[in-house]
Amino acid sequence: MEKIVVCGSCCHEAVLQRYKGCGAQIDFDVPCASLKIKYDYSAAFFMPDCVDDVLRAWVGNEHLRLCADENALFAEMDFFFGIPQPLEIERKFLIARPAESVLSALDFCDYADISQAYINDESGRYRVRRRGRNGAFVYIKTQKIRISEQRRIETENRISKSEYEAAIQGQKLLSKRRYLILSGGKYFELDVFPFWQDVALLEIELKDEKEPFEIPAFVNAIKEVSADKSYRNSVIAQKYGVAAE
């Protein structure tokens, strides 16, 4: 069962009642005391009264969102659960690769190592991914249907290690380090690849294509590549991926 955490003041009963049919375990005010806890939870939502130390500990969770009030919390959770439709709206930028020392000095930043492959079989086309570090990993299967250059219908499910290992056999495996950065109230994903020394990719997922955001000040953006197929991970995997053993 998928696990979600909500931290800060909100009506617990209202949250549980609203999402009782979503098939997820919803917990409240769970301290993030280990990488395992950080990765076990698929999403983490934070209310304004949540203290910085609690928030900082959760940075690196796959889906972290700040919520200005309870209505914003419901809007973010609705979007996460795919109510009314499981959409992914993404903006992507090619950037100059930041020095690791710059990233490690950021106050609200953490990273995970990712290996992923894209598979075509009788069930369709999908991605499998291993995400984590230091022996704490989760395994995820994702299917996407592209609506436009920025909008996709996306469904994700946790899978077992053995299912992941079986799926990647004979596939090209793409590896990268993903930095999760909280900046200006938004959550950015900065992907560093071993085969690119001078550039990296910065992504942000939005609830709406017109949702405003500011690229973090330390980032030197070269150009937006949201509509450039050559910067899709599936294309990068075909070009640079290594055959899985």
Task: Sum up the structure in keywords.
Rossmann fold, globular, 245 residues, Hypothetical Protein Pfu-838710-001, four-stranded parallel beta sheet, 7 helices, eight-stranded antiparallel beta barrel
Account of the 3D structure:
The protein has 245 residues and is α+β, with helices and mostly antiparallel strands. The chain has 2 domains: 2-81, Rossmann fold, CATH 3.40.50; 88-243, Hypothetical Protein Pfu-838710-001 (Beta Barrel). It has 7 helices and 14 strands. It has helices at 12-18, 35-40, 52-58, 70-81, 100-104, 161-168, 233-240; strands at residues 2-7, 24-28, 43-46, 64-66, 87-96, 109-121, 124-133, 136-146, 151-159, 172-183, 186-192, 199-206, 221-224, 242-243. The strands form 2 sheets. An 8-stranded antiparallel β-barrel has the order 5-9-8-7-6-10-11-12. The radius of gyration is 18 Å and the shape is globular.
